[in-house]
Amino acid sequence: MKHLFTAMSLPAEERKPAAVGKLVTMFRPDHKFERGEGESELVVENLNVHIKQQHILKEISLTIPDKKITCIIGPSGCGKSTLLKTFNRLIDSVEGVRVSGRVLLNGEDIVGSGGAEIINLRRKMGLISQKPCPLPMSIFDNVAYGCRVHGIRNRRKLRMIVRHYLEAAGLWEEVKERLNTPAARLSIGQQQRLCLARSLAVEPHFILADEATSALDPISSKTIEELFIALKQHYSIVMVTHTLRQALRVADHVVFMYLGQVIEAGPADQVFNNPTNKLTQKYLSGIFS
Ligand SMILES: Nc1ncnc2c1ncn2[C@@H]1O[C@H](COP(=O)(O)OP(=O)(O)OP(=O)(O)O)[C@@H](O)[C@H]1O
Ligand SMILES: [Mg+2]
Q1: Per-residue pLDDT for 13 more than 90?
Q2: Residue 56's closest CA among 87, 99, 89, 103?
Q3: pLDDT > 60? residue 245
Q4: Is 0.90 topped by the overall pTM?
Q5: Structural domain boundaries of the chain?
Q6: Residue 193 Cβ contacting ligand 1 at under 6 Å
Q7: Is the CB of 94 under 6 A from ligand 1?
Q8: SS3 of 266, please?
């Protein structure tokens, strides 16, 4: 068997913890919404997702730890995106979907909730997708949007919020002179940081990132990685990535999926250096991808 893909496969400069900008390290959520005290834990119990006749997610049970970066890895089509969509109930919009089992956010089942609870749930579960999708409005309005939906109208307060979260996403200096221009005029990397600011502004408990850096240039991609490393002080981050190197650089916790099942999950060190399952070993060795 080929060598496993371990932390030692990375050049030294990649193994060092990423340096983060001063503004980001100083960042604190502004606590305008009730976040509750204590830990934000996501516990998945016997989750099954069917789409029409297809069994997409099979008996998934796992715990996503608080204030850590959890990387979900696995070959294309194994169900990574479906799992993230189940966490924020975007899965509901898929025709012919059936979901069973439980996903507990701080003890409350989010699979069975409905109506207004879903709006509140989506606030807690900020999803960032592969292709940045800013809303067709100005940079300012993109960040303010979620806060307005959740009842914040005061202009001065909104200005403070917008600045705070654009700083958190490392974008403020680049856009402060043109907040009222359309977001679509930003570069793709800037748009992705704007989407991150928009998600953060409503103070999610989790940031769900589905290949959030795969469409970006290397510098924008590194910026997002560094932001995630800094933001995990305050948020739990679940990152789907196709890049094992990226998972090695950022993951605290790893979930390996294959054909709709969780094959192995645990601390990154353990999964990367001592995977117990043969399939995980093969995947990390590059025998299949
Ligand atoms: N709306 C849908 N209708 C039918 N099947 C779907 C739908 N969405 C996903 N699937 C199927 O569910 C399975 C898992 O898809 P999913 O997008 O979750 O995989 P993934 O691990 O994210 O793959 P990739 O790495 O390519 O993004 C695939 O077989 C896919 O074809
Ligand atoms: Mg996917």
Answers
A1: no
A2: 99
A3: yes
A4: no
A5: 7-11+42-284
A6: no
A7: yes
A8: strand
At residue 123, the pLDDT reads 85
Query: Which residue type, as a one-letter code, is found at position 258?
Result: Y
Residue 282 is predicted with a pLDDT of: 95
Say if residue 118's pLDDT is above 90: no
Residue 270 has pLDDT above 80, yes or no: yes
CA distance 170 to 253: 25
- Torsion over CA: 65, 258, 121, 205 (sign): positive
Mean of the pLDDT values across residues 117-132? 88
> What is the whole-number distance in angstroms between the Cα of residue 211 and the centre of ligand 2?
7
Which ligand neighbours the alpha carbon of 83 most closely?
Answer: 1
| Nearest ligand atom owner, CA of 127 | 2
The token pair at 172 is 């403020």
The CATH architecture to which 7-11+42-284 belongs is 3-Layer(aba) Sandwich (3.40)
Residue from 48, 53, 56, 86 to probe ligand 1 pocket by mutation (most atoms less than 8 Å from CB): 56
| Residue 60, ligand 1, Cβ within 6 A | no
Distance in angstroms between the alpha carbons of the first and the last residue of the chain: 15
Look at the block and give the residue holding tokens 């099979």. Answer: 58
Measured from the alpha carbon of residue 82, the closest ligand is 1
Which alpha helices (H) appear in the chain, and where do they start and end?
12-15, 22-26, 80-87, 116-124, 139-149, 155-168, 172-175, 188-201, 218-231, 244-250, 268-273, 278-284
DSSP-assigned beta bridge partners for residue 100: 48
